[in-house]
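Notes, p. 3: input format for complexes.
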Amino acid sequence: MRIILLGPQGAGKGTQAQRIADKVGAKHISTGDIVRAEIKSGSELGQKVQDYNDRGELVPDEIIVQMAKPYLDDADSWILDGFPRNEAQAKALDAALDELGEDLDAVVALEAPDEALVTRLSGRRQSQATGNIYHVEYDPPPEDGDDPGPFVQRKDDAEEAIRRRLEIYHEQTEPLKDYYAERGLLVVVDAEQEIPKVTEDILEAVGEDA
Ligand code: AMP
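Output follows (210 residues plus adenosine monophosphate):
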């Protein structure tokens, strides 16, 4: 199974990609996670991409394509989260798939209004101990020591960066819905629903039993 999860920041792509990947035994490939891991490693490449990440800007296409490609080559079955983000990347993905003789099965677009996304993102906190994601209001970190934290905000979840990321999404990423709809690959799912319901809708849309 080869699926792209499209959607704005805060729509729950990461959460859903992981749930679907666990359910169908595919690999969850998140270019945002790849970028953050590279930054954390302190490598030269990490230093190169850090500024883009922190400001909420896209990393240049050639760099992100190079970073993502080994992961695509490495697995037959995957859910792509955060890639492609514009038409140039979509074309690079087409070329990579052609080379491998593989096809896309579906492109799932998660949709939610901007106000809901800003609320979700600005309250988001990640545990440095476990990597688990919480929300200060809707899903607060446990106080019983189950997850010791500390619970930190991503640099690009600061308000200025959130606004920039949503702007880029609408300008550059959202047009990909048409790009894939023309090929009959697009399905749209309402991301404002409860997490299990979103998962169920995605599984149904890609022809898997929920
Ligand atoms: P995300 O967690 O998907 O929001 O990604 C975090 C950051 O990583 C983005 O704001 C970009 O700086 C970078 N990034 C992730 N995926 C891509 C991509 N496909 N193209 C360009 N930059 C990306």
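The longest strand covers residues 106-111.
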